[in-house]
Design brief:
The chain is an alpha+beta fold. The protein is 43% helix and 19% strand. The protein has a 3-stranded mixed β-sheet with strand order 1-3-2. The protein starts with 6 loop residues before the first helix and ends in a 6-residue tail after the last helix.
Length: 148
Amino acid sequence: MIDNKTLDKYLLNKYPTTHNVSNDKALRVYVMALKNQYLKKSDPISQIKYDDKIHIINNALGLHTYVSRVQGNKLKSKHELRIGSQFKKAPEDFLAMIVVHELAHLKEKEHNKAFYKLCQSMLPDYHQLELDLRIYLTQLELIGDIYP
């Protein structure tokens, strides 16, 4: 597909439209809906936002960070979830895959078998979406964006 320059045709055929989650407030609503559906009893997330400092090709698609602090005699953890700003205008399936991936880190810190099993329980076609997302990133890097 790279040699024939047909990555865009493949992607547009499978994912013809983008999502409407274009700001941090809408992203928080989107993420919390998924979290409440699949991970109700997990730790709360203090901050959810798009981050234009995440370089998606060389670094990451999204980030889950947490800080543990001692408050009195309790250990409190603060979770933050950041999604690369490039995904403000991407297909919703790709956004869902990234969000599910970052949410799974609330339960499983490492990328192990349990982590991917949790991702698949939240998004059954997780692995196919991950592959298609990598195809999309290849399209972005080699040719450019296909979504206006």
